[in-house]
Design a protein that fits this description.
The chain is α/β, with parallel strands linked by helices. It has a domain of about 250 residues: Rossmann fold, CATH 3.40.50. About 40% of the residues lie in helices and about 15% in strands. The protein starts with a helix and ends in a 10-residue tail after the last helix. It binds nicotinamide-adenine-dinucleotide (NAD). Nicotinamide-adenine-dinucleotide binds next to helix 5, helix 7 and strand 5. One of its GO terms (cellular component) is Golgi cisterna membrane.
């Protein structure tokens, strides 16, 4: 005991023992467990801290990819956790989208698509195409100008849902794409309650962008040629910034849509939302409101009812008219394509109001009279899209000219006005 302990003492303090005597190898104090626990507590603590930090950083998060909070400059529509439905799978959707993968074993069928304003004129035709393609479609509409009749042929289809909802209120849905059309489009309707129109364009668009951000959906805004105002450039290219009266009677619509475009681009740049912007030029076709004041529907309804065609001003102002199936094709190509836009979607064929009246007379009633009325305020003098960008980047251009599309609309209007037999109204 004494030699070994003296050996220990010796070896601990002398570098070279002076004799050949055997000394058992001394036990190193730092290999003893008790010693480690006693003396290295600080190191253990530090090691534990580092491991815990690594664990929490590397663990894949199952919470939404977007932080919730009052300081978020790109608000999402759902800030209070209590408002989440208990059976909601939205968190799953967020994680699927945030990593861009579908979990193994889950077969991708169609897309889940929201169409706001889907019970309206353009929206209902878009819904028809999406359903025909095999997608699941949720129509969100407050029926201000839209009608259940426009979509009721899909009732009973498990791929179709209809929600009566005003887009100025937040909405939670799990979807892959959002076509945002909700907004009255004709002057009669958007001037009816201008404050509501601007609220729909601003708050409604904000809500839908918030939804897109939360669930990682791609968002398409249907903007309008009205953002060019009374244009000083002709035809209008997407690079033209417009000539808009910010305080006129049409401003609720024109400026509302301009703001909606701004919000869309800011959510894209600032929050990484995938967006698309379409600037739609005058579109006509079956299911337009009969008396919405838009020139094609006006003329057709008047000619069918044997009333004079009302021409505002001298009738020399020009418009271009696009058949609805061409527009729907353009919207879908835009949504599926790689380019944000904005894209002009319209038919470059340009007609004066008097030329349009003549085509309507030829198609419906050559005896129809023309009646002149004073022009409305801020009515643009010229409108014609330059569609080179859409041709080049989307491979899109309209196929249906006015003389081919108008009869298809006329048979739908005739059926709705007189209850005649319907004859192939929706496609051209
Ligand atoms: N048709 C055109 O010539 C044209 C031209 C330029 C732009 N656009 C745009 O295309 C979109 C569709 O136009 P449309 O011609 O089908 O018009 P529309 O009036 O037939 O359809 C609009 C739909 O939106 C719904 N809606 C309106 N406000 C809403 C709200 N607050 N919440 C929920 N739903 C609401 C209406 O009930 C209607 O079903 C609009 O955004 C419009 O600005 C259309």
């Amino acid at each position: 005991m004494s030699s070994s302990s003296s050996g220990l003492i010796f070896r601990g303090h002398e570098a070279h023992p002076m004799d050949d005597a055997y000394y058992p190898k001394p036990q190193k104090p730092w290999l003893s467990f008790g010693y480690l626990l006693r003396e290295q507590r600080l190191h253990f603590l530090l090691l534990g801290f580092v491991l815990a930090t690594l664990f929490f950083f590397l663990l894949p998060s199952s919470s939404p990819s977007q932080p919730l909070g009052a300081h978020d400059p790109f608000p999402t529509p759902y800030l209070e956790p209590t408002r989440w439905p208990t059976n909601s799978r939205s968190y799953d959707v967020v994680s699927v989208h945030s990593v861009g993968k579908i979990p193994l074993g889950i077969k991708r069928k169609g897309l889940r698509i929201v169409v706001t304003g889907g019970a309206g004129f353009v929206g209902s035709h878009l819904v028809d195409r999406l359903i025909a393609r095999g997608d699941s479609v949720i129509v969100v509409d407050n029926f201000f100008t839209g009608m259940k009749e426009n979509v009721m042929h899909h009732f009973g289809n498990p791929n179709f849902e209809l929600i009566r909802h005003d887009v100025v209120e937040p909405l939670l849905l799990e979807v892959d794409q959002i076509y945002h059309l909700a907004c009255p489009a004709s002057p009669v309707h958007y001037k009816f309650n201008p404050v509501k129109t601007i609220k729909t364009n601003v708050v409604g668009t904000l809500n839908m962008l918030g939804l897109a951000k939360r669930v990682g959906a791609r968002f398409l805004l249907t903007s309008t040629s009205e953002i060019y105002g009374d244009p000083l450039e002709h035809p209008q290219k997407e690079t033209y910034w417009g000539n808009v009266n910010p305080i006129g009677v049409r401003s609720c619509y024109d400026e509302g849509k301009r703001t909606a475009e701004t919000l869309t681009m800011d959510y894209h740049r600032g929050a990484g939302v995938e967006v698309r912007i379409a600037r739609i030029f005058n579109t006509y076709g079956p299911r337009m409101c009969l008396d919405d004041g838009r020139v094609v529907s006006n003329f057709v309804a008047q000619a069918l009812r044997k009333e004079p065609l009302t021409v505002y001003g001298d009738g020399k102002q020009t418009r271009s008219f696009q058949y609805v199936s061409d527009l729907v094709e353009g919207l879908m190509r835009l949504m599926e394509g790689e380019h944000v836009g904005p894209f002009n979607l319209g038919n470059p064929g340009e007609f004066t109001m008097l030329e349009l009246a003549k085509v309507v007379q030829e198609t419906i009633d050559p005896e129809a009279k023309i009646e002149y009325r004073p022009n409305t305020e801020d009515d643009p003098h010229k409108r014609k899209p330059d569609i080179s960008r859409a041709k080049e980047q989307l491979g899109w251009e309209p196929k249906v000219d006015l003389r081919k599309g108008l009869p298809l609309m006329v048979s739908d209007f005739r059926q709705r006005i007189f209850g005649d037999q319907k004859e192939g109204t929706t496609s051209a």
